[in-house]
Design brief:
Oligomer: single chain
Strand content: 5-15%
CATH superfamily of the largest domain: Tetratricopeptide repeat domain
Number of domains: 3
Structural class: alpha/beta
Radius of gyration: 24 Å
InterPro entries: TPR-like_helical_dom_sf
Organism: Thiothrix caldifontis
Helix content: 40-55%
Protein name: TolB amino-terminal domain-containing protein
CATH topology of the largest domain: Serine Threonine Protein Phosphatase 5, Tetratricopeptide repeat
Largest sheet: 5 strands, mixed
Length: about 475
């Protein structure tokens, strides 16, 4: 099977920037050398000596027979790549490995054999579409237990309260009973357990170590550490931390919990429950990004709404499909503006406290050129859930569509800076804005950050040639 070199180089870049590799200087040089040499058809020339001298900068008198450096680092590299592809790179389209015999790189596609497996609806649908469920569990490993335990339980409860404004997931707070050695994550009957572990750190600081466990397999699928000041626990100081955790684990497009949950359901081979199939088909559409994948997911969503017309989550997904259809010109939704207006009116009646009800109403108003109502709605959406990165990006794009560059541009840029894991299409509106304002070099630089250009070519073309509202 042929491999696109641009995709391999994009995957290499993702690996080198990952948390597994970013501080491993020798392994970064090692991997970069063998990948680029393999792509240049020089695999036969890759030896311990060339890796050491050309890749790692060792002197020309390097003796591989006497120095086991390359053999040791090769073993570490194979192990670290395996760890990367069980966590951060689990759903990447390309997999890079080091050959077991020799030192050249190997490249394979990671697409599943059957992305769209048959989905069987249950006879009686649940009233609301659902995604993964998560229990948040506070733990303290600080000697000063009297102050650290109330601190971490309060922080965890605050985080859970924030997540009630997020879509497509069910989040609960573990009771305040201490975590015991014989306690298991299975007892909570959720898909995931998010541990928020408090540790002591120098200079009157805490270290917050978070880990997301997939309950059925007991695998750690995400982990991150944060520094906390014991004397500054204001919302302003905690919001960036909460935003990063929510984005990485439950983000609309990149959230690892959504991906792992969907893959596990598909791998189980069991019929998919009705309340899960809209969110599952959304994942499949995001993985594949093709007209056929979009049409399949759209039809599943429409069928669900025909059976459960008050399913708020399905309505939100459908509204986002309207945005996708408008942007990528799939032309699968007839009378798109009218349908979006109908869905958003229903959302505002059924779920007035949901940020996305107001966000997609703002989108509908923008398409209908009702700018005052659009601005009011997008501001309401941001006020309800300021920590949702995906929502903030869409809000930023809407502000750009209203001609408010000073508001929209920082929103998108700040969302990109939250985490190294974000959808590459976030750079499209930035590229468009630079292009229209004559900053062609900046426009090109933003466009070059889009990895899967074959997916977004239509969007880029349309947005560079069409009115401002086309950014949606």
């Amino acid at each position: 099977m042929s491999i696109n070199k641009a995709l391999v180089l994009s995957e290499l870049d993702s690996i080198l920037k990952s948390r597994h590799f970013r501080s491993r200087r020798v392994l970064r040089f090692f991997l970069h050398y063998v990948v680029t040499q393999t792509l240049a058809d020089n695999a036969a020339k890759i030896t311990q000596y060339t890796i050491a001298v050309e890749g790692l900068g060792k002197s020309a008198d390097f003796n591989s027979a006497a120095d086991p450096l390359i053999r040791i680092q090769a073993g570490r590299l194979r192990k670290l790549l395996e760890e990367y592809y069980t966590t951060e790179g689990r759903f990447n389209p390309i997999r890079i490995e080091l050959a077991t015999r020799g030192y050249h790189a190997t490249f394979t596609h990671q697409t599943t054999q059957a992305v769209y497996q048959p989905i069987t609806l249950e006879d009686i649908p649940s009233s609301l579409s659902q995604g993964p469920s998560i229990v948040c569990i506070p733990r303290t490993f600080v000697m000063d237990d009297a102050s650290s335990w109330p601190f971490i339980t309060r922080l965890t409860r605050d985080y859970v309260n924030i997540l009630t404004h997020f879509n497509g997931c069910q989040v609960v707070f573990a009771d305040e009973m201490r975590w015991q050695a014989n306690t298991t994550v299975q007892q909570y009957n959720t898909d995931f357990a998010l541990f928020l572990d408090l540790h002591a750190a120098p200079a009157k600081h805490y270290s917050l170590k978070c880990s997301l466990i997939h309950t059925p397999t007991e695998q750690v699928v995400w982990a991150q550490s944060f520094s906390l000041n014991q004397h500054d626990t204001s919302q302003a100081s905690l919001q960036p931390i909460f935003k990063r955790i929510a984005h990485d684990t439950l983000g609309y497009e990149q959230g690892v919990a959504h991906h792992v949950w969907a893959r596990h359901l598909l791998d189980s081979g069991k019929p998919i429950a009705a309340q899960h199939q809209v969110m599952l088909s959304l994942r499949q559409q995001l993985w594949e990004r093709s007209p056929q994948a979009f049409l399949t997911s759209l039809q599943i969503c429409e069928k669900r709404l025909a059976q459960a017309p008050n399913d708020v989550q399905a309505m939100i997904v459908y509204a986002d499909y309207c945005r996708t259809d408008y942007l990528l010109k799939y032309q699968q939704i007839e009378t798109l503006e009218e349908r979006l207006a109908y869905v958003t009116d229903a959302l505002l009646q059924l779920a007035p406290g949901n940020a996305y009800s107001h966000l997609y109403y703002a989108l509908s108003c923008l398409l209908l050129e009702e700018h005052d109502m659009c601005l009011e709605a997008v501001q309401q959406a941001q006020a309800i859930n300021p920590l949702d990165v995906h929502l903030n990006v869409l809000a930023g794009i809407i502000h750009l569509g209203l001609g408010q560059e000073q508001i929209g541009l920082p929103l998108i840029q700040q969302s990109i800076a939250i985490s190294p894991f974000y959808p590459d299409w976030y750079h499209i509106p930035l590229s468009q804005l630079h292009y229209r304002q004559g900053r062609y070099l900046e426009a090109r630089q933003e466009a070059q950050k889009i990895k899967l250009k074959h997916v977004w070519d239509t969007a880029l073309h349309n947005m560079l040639l069409s009115p401002a509202k086309q950014t949606l």
